[in-house]
Amino acid sequence: MKRRNTETTAEIHFLLKNSNSALSHDMIQEKMSKSVDRATIYRILNRLCEDKIVHKIIADDGKQYFAFCVNCQEHQHKHNHFHFRCTECGKVECLQSELKIGLPKNYVFENLNGVISGTCPDCKIVTTAG
Questions:
Q1: Most buried of the four, 53, 74, 100, 125, by CB within 10 Å?
Q2: CATH number of the domain within which 122 lies
Q3: SS3 label, residue 129
Q4: Is there a domain that residue 1 lies in?
Q5: Using CA atoms, how far apart are residues 34 and 41, in angstroms rounded to an integer?
C-alpha cells in the first residue's frame, strides 16, 4: 500500500534518520518544528515500523524508543541485535553486533528485543573523572 508522505511524516523520518540514538515519543515531540498531537506521532511511528524503516525498542524503563534501520536492506529487515540504555543520560542505542540464536528444532526466529542497561562511555568518563 502506497503511503502519503506528509510534512509531519517527513520530519519524523528526518529526526530518526539523523539521530545518533533511538528516540522516544516524547523526545520526538520535543524536537518537532510545530505542535503535533500524540496520536498522529504514534500513528506515523507505527507505520514506519510496519514499513520496516524504523524499529521499536521496548526498554527496561518501560518506554518505547524508535531507531532508524541502518543495516536493513529493502524487504530484508534485520533486527537481531541488542540495545543499550544508559541509566545516567537515558540514551538508547543499537549495538551493532549481530547475534546468532540457537533455537530448538521447529522454532523460527522473527525478532529479538533485548536491552542492556548500564553506563555509556560518555557518562562513564564523567563518573570516573568526577
A1: 53
A2: 1.10.10.10
A3: helix
A4: no
A5: 12
Can you name the residues that pair with 2 across neighbouring β-strands? none
> Which three three-digit cell numbers place residue 38?
500524540
**Domain count of the chain?**
1
Residue 122 carries which side chain, given as an amino acid letter? D
Nearest 5 degrees, angle CA 113-CA 48-CA 13? 110
Q: Do 118 and 84 touch, CB atoms closer than 8 A? A: yes
Q: What letter does residue 70 receive in the DSSP assignment?
A: S
Domain assignment of residue 93, yes or no: yes
Domain that holds residue 93: 7-129
User: Whole-prediction pTM value?
Assistant: 0.75
In the chain, the largest separation of any two C-alpha atoms, in whole Å, equals 54
Query: Does residue 2 sit within a domain?
Result: no
The span from the CA of 129 to the CA of 7, in Å, is: 44
